[in-house]
Design brief:
With 185 residues, the protein is of the alpha/beta class. Helices cover 24% and strands 39% of the residues. The protein has a six-stranded mixed sheet with strand order 3-4-5-6-7-11, sandwiched between helices. The protein has a five-stranded mixed sheet with strand order 2-1-8-9-10, with helices on one face. Helix 1 crosses helix 4. The N and C termini lie far apart (42 Å).
Length: 185
């Protein structure tokens, strides 16, 4: 955790009907000084989408060799590696070599589009990689939910996600740019 990190608390009620996962999670998020609310909330969304009792936040921006989120098995092998943003291709390839499944959640305007246009061909051959993009209005709406103490209800069904606090509900339709089921042509 960065020494000047801002601490956020999130109480999540997750109902994931696609995976039959119904659980409450109480999380502590450290927002790096250079991290925006938008990026932090995309990290939280990634946690919601992959929720598991052993899913942990990595040091992320504070460490090059750790993801934003990861899930390890009891032997220490990495089952799931999750990065947020537009990571370098070499970092994604390294993650794909270390983990069974790798997810990248890209977000933002033109930067995410340019990153994917540049990286798509080289990342196509990575069979354990999924790349998901969030529309700019979605990630901005998520950032409005950022509070030092959050209580969020999260529902996942038919690949859609709803995240709600006491004042607003956000519908999220992630766009899958590359899926592990996508085979090379």
């Amino acid at each position: 955790m960065a020494s000047n990190a801002t601490i956020y608390k999130a109480a999540l009620q997750i109902a994931d009907m696609d995976r039959n996962y119904y659980q409450d999670h109480t999380l502590t998020l450290a927002r790096h000084p250079s991290e925006t609310d938008e990026r932090m909330m995309v990290r939280l969304l990634a946690f919601i989408r992959h929720a598991h009792e052993a899913l942990l936040f990595g040091r992320g921006m504070s460490a090059e060799d750790e993801p934003d989120l990861w899930l390890k098995d009891l032997t220490g092998n990495i089952d799931l590696w999750v990065d947020v943003g537009q990571p370098e291709e070499k970092d994604i390839r390294r993650a794909c070599g270390r983990a069974k499944l790798v997810y990248v959640y890209s977000y933002g305007n033109r930067g995410a589009e340019l990153w994917w246009a540049k990286s798509q061909a080289n990342l196509a051959r990575l069979d354990n990689l999924t790349v998901i993009n969030l529309a700019p209005e979605t990630s901005r709406a998520l950032s409005l939910l950022a509070q030092r103490n959050m209580r969020l209800q999260c529902t996942l069904q038919d690949a859609q996600i709803w995240v709600a606090d006491e004042q607003r509900t956000i519908q999220i339709d992630p766009v899958i740019l590359k899926d592990v089921t996508t085979k090379r042509r």
